[in-house]
């Protein structure tokens, strides 16, 4: 039986586009399958903030950030905490990825038209010792144009290849089976779903109108993780993080369902590190949702007081922006699935950025004027919209009213006004003290020594209860599902491995489906800005390897 293409790529997200572009550049014919309609081409990356992990970049050097390959690798390994036999390939992928981030990554992207915002962010600051979790220096580079800006050159390359007859799109094709006929995985079968005109990100119909079977010399799986499927998230939830909360928000659309992972596993692919996952602790309900349970993550500066459900400050170093999974671990031990930020308007205006392309119209639209207006505004427009309409926001002039508003958002009134006042007054007393023992105040002052934070991310130290900085604000924070850190085990050529450790002939995987490389390049934790880059690096690798393998 003749082949329908040289390679079939399953999944039209960033990793799939990167792989397809490489295959087309090599002159290979590709069929690109996706269960969603054409308007969702690009997948999750479209909704992203466009953050990229780079090492010793010109942007860093201009801000007097001294970074190095050695420091970045130390941070990665201390963060990943690799400790399993199955971490062999993830560790090798980690080494290769840091090489990429410190080497050709920026030039490779720039050649394709990707540009970066000049201010570098400092995510996942850690707060432990030098060998532990966290970025020692700022490394979070924002794509000028956010997620859509990063996607654009890869979408363009693939569409140009389609115009040349090298790529064929087949949307609304849901894969349900992989098979081997000529000794390697060469047959892809599944269901054709009815056409759908729903907007990008909105749940599309799952009505089946037919079936399909296609053959190729190689197959690349780039279908993402499980973040949109809460049943799978709960099933994979590790005991070390306690019991998953009753309420979870979704940081990704429903089509991120994880179903293709089982299909690849049934075909012989080895799935590893399924208990490693990356969920955010600063999720808020989107007042204008696109998908069900749509949550937005706050990217906070360092000044908000982070309180548990009963009004106690989270322990050191669980400050905003320091340790996502450490914070998740602590929250799950409290017996409650939510926490609070307590702050004021001066802090929210300077320090709140909302993740996602749609929440950053200035950066997404590449508007210099919009960026300047954001910096000058008392509160940026998207944040102000949440203050006015968000179900998780309480805005009041006095503390008593704030506490009453907080308790109105919970099943039980757990916040006591006098206890919260004591926490705030104690913290405020430390602001006037240059010899403070409050490590969060120390962290704020340390952040403001970095020009990027002083310009756009860290408010000048002041009293939260200062009337001139008001009104007071409380934000109820939920757990927000996002990324799978495990997936299909792959070697450094993105070939899917069997449980015995041998390559499964004909099958490759990239992006989140492969744990962004190797079946879990991040280990237990991420340094942020590494998901999009992981899709690009593993997708590029898979495309190049498959192109060489097929005749």
Whole-number mean pLDDT: 97
Distance N to C terminus: 16 Å
Number of strands: 20
Discrete helix count: 18
- Give helix % range: 25-40%
Please give the structural blueprint.
Blueprint: E1 5-10, H1 14-25, E2 30-34, E3 51-53, H2 58-62, H3 69-80, H4 88-102, H5 105-111, E4 140-142, H6 146-163, E5 167-171, E6 173-180, E7 185-193, E8 208-221, H7 230-236, E9 248-250, H8 259-266, E10 271-272, E11 277-285, E12 295-299, E13 305-307, H9 324-333, E14 338-344, H10 345-351, E15 353-354, H11 361-364, H12 368-376, H13 381-389, E16 393-396, H14 399-408, H15 417-431, H16 439-447, H17 451-456, E17 472-484, E18 487-488, E19 495-497, E20 503-509, H18 531-549
Parallel strand pairs: 1-2, 1-8, 2-5, 8-20, 9-17
Antiparallel strand pairs: 3-4, 6-7, 7-8, 10-18, 11-12, 11-17, 12-15, 13-14, 14-17, 16-17, 19-20
Would you kindly provide a written description of the structure presented here, covering whatever features stand out?
By secondary structure, the chain is an alpha+beta fold. Helices cover 33% and strands 21% of the residues. It contains 18 helices and 20 strands. The strands form 4 sheets. Strands 1, 2, 5, 6, 7, 8, 19 and 20 form an 8-stranded mixed β-sheet that branches. Strands 9, 11, 12, 13, 14, 15, 16 and 17 form an 8-stranded mixed β-sheet that branches. A two-stranded antiparallel ribbon has the order 3-4. Strand 1, helix 1 and strand 2 (30-34) form a beta-alpha-beta unit. Helix 1 (14-25) runs parallel beside helix 6. It is globular, with a radius of gyration of 23 Å. The mean pLDDT is 97.
């Amino acid at each position: 039986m003749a082949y329908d293409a040289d390679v079939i790529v399953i999944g039209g997200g960033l990793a799939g586009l990167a792989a397809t572009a490489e295959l087309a550049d090599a002159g290979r014919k590709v069929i690109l399958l996706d269960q969603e309609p054409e308007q969702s081409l690009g997948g999750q990356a479209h909704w992203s903030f466009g953050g990229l992990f780079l090492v010793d970049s010109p942007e860093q050097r201009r801000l007097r950030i001294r970074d190095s390959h050695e420091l970045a690798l130390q941070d990665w390994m201390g963060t990943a905490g690799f400790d399993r036999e199955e971490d062999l390939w993830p560790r090798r992928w980690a080494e290769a990825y840091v090489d990429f981030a410190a080497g050709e990554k920026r030039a490779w992207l720039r050649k394709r038209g990707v540009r970066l915002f000049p201010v570098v962010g400092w995510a996942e600051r850690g707060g432990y010792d030098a060998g532990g979790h966290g970025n020692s220096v700022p490394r979070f580079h924002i794509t000028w144009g956010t997620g859509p800006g990063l996607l654009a050159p890869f979408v363009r390359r693939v569409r140009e290849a389609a115009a040349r007859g090298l790529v064929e799109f087949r949307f609304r094709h849901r894969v349900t089976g992989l098979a081997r006929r000529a000794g390697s995985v060469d047959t892809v079968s599944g269901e054709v779903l009815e056409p759908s005109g729903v907007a990008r990100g909105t749940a599309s119909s799952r009505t089946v109108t037919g079936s399909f079977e296609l053959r190729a010399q190689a197959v690349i799986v780039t279908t993402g993780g499980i973040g949109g499927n809460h049943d799978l998230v709960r099933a994979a939830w590790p005991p070390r993080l306690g019991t998953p909360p009753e309420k979870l928000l979704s940081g990704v659309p429903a089509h991120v369902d994880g179903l293709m992972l089982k299909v690849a596993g049934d075909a012989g692919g080895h799935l590893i590190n399924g208990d490693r996952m990356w969920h955010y602790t600063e999720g808020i309900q989107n007042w204008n949702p696109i998908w069900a349970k749509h949550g937005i993550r706050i990217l906070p500066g360092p000044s908000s007081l982070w309180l548990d459900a009963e009004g106690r400050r989270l322990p050191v170093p669980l400050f905003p922006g320091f340790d996502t999974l450490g914070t998740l671990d602590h929250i799950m031990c409290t017996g409650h699935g939510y926490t609070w930020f307590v702050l004021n308007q001066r802090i929210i205006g300077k320090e709140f950025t909302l993740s996602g392309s749609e929440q950053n119209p200035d950066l997404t639209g590449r508007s210099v004027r919009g960026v300047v207006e954001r910096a000058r505004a008392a509160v940026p427009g998207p944040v102000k919209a949440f203050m006015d309409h968000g179900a998780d926001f309480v805005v009041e002039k006095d503390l008593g009213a704030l506490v009453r508003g907080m308790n109105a958002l919970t099943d039980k009134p757990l916040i006591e006004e006098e206890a919260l006042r004591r926490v705030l007054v104690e913290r405020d007393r430390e602001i006037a003290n240059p010899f403070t023992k409050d490590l969060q105040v120390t962290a704020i002052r340390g952040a403001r020594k970095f020009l990027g934070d002083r310009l756009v991310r860290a408010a000048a130290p002041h009293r939260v209860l200062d009337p001139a900085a008001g009104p007071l604000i409380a934000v109820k924070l939920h757990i927000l599902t996002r990324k799978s850190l495990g997936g299909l085990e792959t070697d450094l050529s993105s070939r899917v491995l069997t449980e015995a450790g041998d390559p499964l002939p004909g099958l490759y995987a990239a992006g989140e489906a492969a744990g962004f490389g190797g079946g879990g390049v991040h280990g237990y934790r991420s340094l942020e800005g590494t998901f999009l880059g992981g899709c690009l690096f593993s997708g590029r690798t898979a495309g190049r390897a498959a192109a060489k393998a097929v005749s």
